[in-house]
Amino acid sequence: DAGVTQSPTHLIKTRGQQVTLRCSPKSGHDTVSWYQQALGQGPQFIFQYYEEEERQRGNFPDRFSGHQFPNYSSELNVNALLLGDSALYLCASSWQLAGATDTQYFGPGTRLTVL
Amino acid sequence: AQSVTQLGSHVSVSEGALVLLRCNYSSSVPPYLFWYVQYPNQGLQLLLKYTSAATLVKGINGFEAEFKKSETSFHLTKPSAHMSDAAEYFCAVTQLSGYSTLTFGKGTMLLVSP
Known about the structure:
Oligomer: heterodimer
Number of strands of chain A: 11
Largest interface: A-B, 30 and 27 residues
Distance between the termini of chain A: 36 Å
Radius of gyration of chain A: 13 Å
Number of helices of chain B: 0
């Protein structure tokens, strides 16, 4: 079992550019959540995808968007990058039927640096 | 709204000493609580979780935590620290009515000295 995988590992962009991050969930999982972890902070929830729909969203602007594919993998897109978007972006997967008590499994993250 | 507060951004212990990392939660409904560990340049790994069964929860690597409703606390302990325990620890909360999305504390860095 490969667990949750994310790509790329590191990414450097300049202000105003757009970026796409990718995530493959753990085998058997159908729900993907994205979190932003700024330096020295705890992860903050961005949004969650289930059945290819965004079903819950945290306090992030519309510049942050996502997608879930039929194979349950997911993408996070950020437009018009700001310096403050520099962070570790974590993807987590879980199984819908297990509900709120289900363990979320995290990937290793993508480190985004905006210059 | 739900939230967690972790007291102490850094905790230092000697190898073999007791580890105590503090977490207090705020929730209008019964919470589910989690402790995750993050090693440098890695993602988060679940240590243990409380889901309204036993109030004393045992996790991996010898860690345990006790849910105390009267104190709104879920502190993480380990009787004897090991050098390999040095990492950042995050307390998180979610709710039965939610979709398993987590609200995290700011984290506590555990430093272990020989």
